[in-house]
Each structure stands twice: as C-alpha cells, then as structure tokens.
Amino acid sequence: MKLSFTTLGCPDWELEVIIQRAVEYGFDAIDFRGVMGEMNIYKLPAFAENVLHTRDQIRDAGLKVSCFSSSVHMFSKEKFEANKAEIIEYGKLCSLFQTRYIRVFGGAIGETNRAEAIQTIVSHFQELSAIVKEYGVKLLLETHDDWTSCEDVKAVMEQLDTETAAVLWDLHHPFRTLGEQPEQTWNALSPWIEYTHVKDSALKADTAGEFQYCLTGQGNIPLADMYKLLNDNGYDGYYTLEWEKKWHPEIENAEIAFPQYAQFMRALA
C-alpha cells in the first residue's frame, strides 16, 4: 500500500517540516496542494530557483511526489489561458520530480446543460493534451464539485486519450453527496481510476444532509470496503489523505490526523 497526503492538511507547516513528518509518520509520498499559504507552489523559491535542492531533499528522505494538485477548473472558458499556463508550470515540476500526475477539477457548470458542459470539458482536455504529452504526465479529473457522478465523469473520459487523462476517485464525495455506492463508481470508472483521495465523515445529527469531517475510520464512509474493492481489482496507486484543514480549521491538526490515518490504512492491508 502506497500512502500519501495532500499539504492541504498542514497549511502552516514549512517545507522541511512536511518532509520530516512524512517520513516520521510512515508515508511514501507527498501530494503538494499549497505550502505556507501559497496555493500555486511554483511561485515559491523552493519550487522555482531552489527547485533542484527541494527535489533532492525529498528524494534523499526516501519520499516521492505523488501528485501536484492544481487549482485548474477545466470547465472554465474565461480562465482557459490562465489554466493552460498553470498546467505548463506544474508540467515542468512533474518532469523534475518524476511525478506522473497533475490534479484538476471539473468545476461548476452553472446553468449550462450537462451535454454541453461535457463537450466543453472534453475540448479543454484535448487542447491541453499536447502540453501534457510534452511533459509525460496525466491530468487527473477528480470526482468533485459538479463532476461527482460517475456517469458524468465517464461521459468525459470515454472521449479522452488515456495517455493524457485519468480519474482521481475521491472516495468520499460520490458516496456522501450522491449516495453512489463504491461498486457503482468502480464499475463505471475502473478503466480510468489511477489515484485516490481518502477522507471520512459523519452525518450531523440535527441537520439533514450535512456532514462533519472526522478522523479516518471514525465516520461512516465504508473505507475498509472501498480499500478491499480497489485491492481485489488490482489497484496499485496511491491512497492519499485529503485532510481539508485549510478549508475547515475546526478539524484536528495534522499532528493528530496524519499518523492516525497511516495507522488505520496500514492495518487494512
């Protein structure tokens, strides 16, 4: 089992602390989603003029970079050029760190009908395919926001080149927000699933449909069953903790959540 975590869960940690604690807690890799308040990490000296030193720090610690998680929303027409520039920057980092993946969102579609939204997403993926091929990476479309349904994601993926696009199955969102069963998600998207996000939550007692993130295994997302489903079907990608401390400051600190996650997941294997 390969474990990673996104830096969304430790927004106040400096880079050296991120590396040190990844090793200490028993992780295999880091998924970069911001460092010390800067979400576009290619703007930081550690990933610009000092990037080779950073690469060597991570490598010497016995770690890998499992993914660079971008802020790109693929549906957006207005921000397409900015999104393209962001993908280029992350593509450069992927080449240096020998990282296979850049995470992207589908994004909100507003009043656009689904069929048109699907074609817009497909078109944007196709326009970025030459850049992705140049850097030898794939764009991971996450099951998130208006692209949580496996059928909607499948309709996109069926039209894309598997050399440049894959699916990031966020194990939480389809189950929690749509009631989509894990077998349903897997059956629809298994040809493209190459990466996962893991998190747990429990429904709030007094508010219908609302949930609260909680430590791994303490909620009612069927994570053990999901792991078994993936493992039994030969999935060999990362199980990446997405602890959303950046967006939900009330949840436990990474010093608690990260080692607890690693312990829970290792016990499943």
From TrEMBL:
Keywords: Isomerase. Residues 19-253 form the Xylose isomerase-like TIM barrel domain. InterPro entries: IolE/XylAMocC-like, Xyl_isomerase-like_sf, Xyl_isomerase-like_TIM-brl. It holds the Pfam family AP_endonuc_2. One of its GO terms (molecular function) is isomerase activity. It comes from the Bacteria. PANTHER family: HYDROXYPYRUVATE ISOMERASE, XYLOSE ISOMERASE-LIKE TIM BARREL DOMAIN-CONTAINING PROTEIN. This is Sugar phosphate isomerase/epimerase. It comes from Paenibacillus agricola.
